[in-house]
Amino acid sequence: MRTTPPRERADAARNRAAVLDAAATLFREHGVEGVSMETVAAAAGVGKGTLFRRFGDKAGLATALLDTQERALQEAILFGPAPLGPGPAEASPSARERLHAFLEAYLDYLLGHLDLVRISETAAPGARYRIGAYRFWHRHVTLLLAGRPDPVADAHALLATLAAEHVRAVLDDIGADRLRAATLRLAAALTT
Amino acid sequence: MRTTPPRERADAARNRAAVLDAAATLFREHGVEGVSMETVAAAAGVGKGTLFRRFGDKAGLATALLDTQERALQEAILFGPAPLGPGPAEASPSARERLHAFLEAYLDYLLGHLDLVRISETAAPGARYRIGAYRFWHRHVTLLLAGRPDPVADAHALLATLAAEHVRAVLDDIGADRLRAATLRLAAALTT
DNA sequence: CAGAGAAGTGGACTACAGTCCGGTTATGCC
DNA sequence: GGCATAACCGGACTGTAGTCCACTTCTCTG
Lengths: 192, 192
Prior knowledge:
Chains A, B: One of its GO terms (molecular function) is transcription cis-regulatory region binding. 2 copies of one chain form a homodimer. By secondary structure, chain A is mostly helical.
């Protein structure tokens, strides 16, 4: 046990909740792109400085909004039932099955919040690769590709396919079903 | 023969050259990110309006600067010697060889101008997928993947790996050699 | 409860992308 | 050469991301 890490001040907590609330509403109503940070701040009854201090930038705000769902997915991967999670020791799924399950689950998540994820990945240059989430997915996929010549590199390649910016654009061309199929096919090719 | 398409006015041509010159120099000296459009305009002795009218946005300016090299690569693919190009009819390379050659050549091009390509792809949202170049690469790869279940979708997936933003980030993690190897391995897996 | 200092606040400020439009100039035609 | 007109020019203007810092508020300690 160590001394409690400095607790968040009450006013700060209140403001954070207000901002997340306001942002969620505004984004739903006008689309993520159609809402400026200033508008969010005003709607939350908070100064611009406060907003940026808390969330860093628009990507950070989007990330915060996704936090809950993202965590749920990560939990499911780490501790949940097979094939997404490791499952009970006596009946653990193959790496291939788990990879498949991960891609399906991630695509569900991504397609369900495409605009928000896209902002969280692109609002700041290189944002996608700096946030913890990417590292998590990358690590997971890397482990599932163990045995291949270069799992780390292959995991990056596979994840490139899941970049929100890419998915958004490709969706217009081939639609969700073919995108899904192609992603799974690619994973299959990598785990042969 | 049709009536000559309205020729570019002399002053416009002069200004365009001045802008490209100034931009090339400034970008070399201060990096692409470190130069504002206003600075480019000033250095070229041109108004901001002119700059934007001509090139649309920063992505457009970057694209224009890359134009020559990009065209060269496209020419080589369409008409050049094998294995990058189709080569003479009697000794045409396999699709697999051509794909391999394309990826090598594209990576050379990309790594040689990473910052510029990155701006051209990301300065405007979705820019990468709107410009003609992406369509060209996609079409080429699609043709080389003929016979697979869904060449169009697979080509998108393979090209995702070559997005400048992705490459820029991954480079820091695994370096150019492993990136190259992984890309080729992926292509191999797709043409088995 | 009082005082100190850390944490938080908000709005003025800067910098940059991109738009707009009244004025200018090249060009093709007579 | 002179004129009509379409193309072009440039800089003032707008909207937004993100920074800065003098001031306020909370929390902890004695």
